[in-house]
Amino acid sequence: MNMHRTLLILLLILCITVTQAESVGSAEAMELFPEDASTSNPTNRDEIRVENESVSIKDSKAEVNQKQENEAPGIQQYLFDTGFGFGFTWAMRFIYVRNKDERIFGTSFSEWIDNISQPPVIDDGDDYITNYVNHPLYGALAYLYYRSRGHSVWASALGSFIQSTFFEYAVEGLVETPSLIDLIATPTIGTVLGFGLENLSNWLIERDNKAVRALAYIVNPTRIFVRDRKFGILNPLTGSFEFQTPLEMTPNESRAIEFGYPFFLESPIPLGRLGGNFEYVLLDEDLGGEFIFYSLRLDFQSRDNLYGVYIKVPFAGTNNVTLNGESISDGFELGNILVGGKLVVIDSQPYTLSGGFDLTLPTIITDSADRLQAVTEYRRDFPIYLQSAVTTTPYISAGFFKRGVSLQGNFGFDLIANAKNFEGDSFELRIKYGTALGLSTCIPTTPTFFVEFEGYTLATSAGTKKNDLFITPGVRLGKKYSPGFGLQIPLTGESADIAKVDFIIDFQARF
Fold first, then answer.
1. 147 is a domain residue
2. Tally of domains within the chain
3. Residues 231, 418: contact at Cβ < 8 Å?
4. By the 8 A CB rule, do 436 and 414 touch?
5. What is the pTM of this model?
6. Helix (H, G, I), strand (E, B) or coil at 214
7. Over the stretch 336-352, which tens digit does the pLDDT of each residue have?
8. If we measure between CA atoms, which residue out of 215, 230, 155, 218 comes closest to residue 187?
9. What's the pLDDT tens digit per position in 409-436?
10. Are 430 and 459 in contact (CB under 8 A)?
11. 309 within a domain of the structure (yes/no)
């Protein structure tokens, strides 16, 4: 207790010291990637009229910077940024919290009032790393977020205090009493850390070495997601900042979207997109309850859409499931993160053929409640949820599109190492194949109707049912912002023995 009080006193002194610091301006940093002013900086294109065509991009940027300095964001923008930041905090909490029933849904208004009406506790029970490293990193990120949105050092420091207070009272306050250590340590240490990281990032990005400049985006990750006070994402394949402008499709990009992007097949043409999906698998009566899957996926494409890379972060959970006579604790776990890439090898009208390679990494942190072990019973994506497994997947993807009708096909192999948690063998081989037929329409919201057929043959399985087959009808709306709705029905195999139907919702933002 005495140690905590001493640390709190030191933090208060540190806070007073920080408030005496002067704001340090930095020159516009040289970007990591070369920038095309016509596409990646819409402010230059739309707001600056250059009378002399020989004026350099650097001079144009200087004009933009001066204009932005003269138009500093006001209170309305500050309130918007605060609300957006708080909303992002809640979104991430929904994604990463394992016991959502206990930490999010299993509370009440009266319990929340009881928690926040008590004086903050000094000893919150968290370890030193959590209190004085992890939480201050959150405070630093909040500070950097406000700075990237154009707010001053003072306003950004205040924003870090606001976000920390909101988190303690309106997020964690739902289930526990706010922590005095977190209320003080998170924004004070966080602001000092954020101030240092911002200036270090500015220094790194001015270096001549690209590898060193790349560190600037790691030190200050808000550079990746905010530019010129606008939200987006930096495409490492092109150096452009996406989402700032309306979707301006190249011929290949238009064809990629027309393929409809069904839920489970890899499209033959790379397309930049940010998306997430949610699946609710209704199980048979013997298991009861549901399996729940959700994931985030980010794709980057080249300028000509002929190659691309992507990453998928999956989560899975159980709800009221009984397996082998034992009740599985409700909750969610992080699965194995997948990274991959694809390259178009035949690009012609109306045919397209590409080759790709996926690597599924063993990123499962824990499965102490056997939630992920349970969801591998639904064998469609079992390598993603198999603890300690490493999976390499070479595949080919082909497509045909003409007059609104698309046909796609996939064929590949899952080479699964460290797979003994599945059927006891150290290695498993699975063959994957599928096809999808789609129809694009011109009616409002430009829906694309499609039906997928997916098949999986576990060649090394010791069981008699080596094949799992699924049919997935669905519809996708829009082009730049595209929600999708569908359901998957297992037709045969082990998955069909345990599950009735899988309800699917996803959303993609294309760029």
1. yes
2. 2
3. no
4. no
5. 0.81
6. helix
7. 999 999 999 999 888 99
8. 155
9. 999 999 999 999 999 999 999 999 999 9
10. yes
11. yes
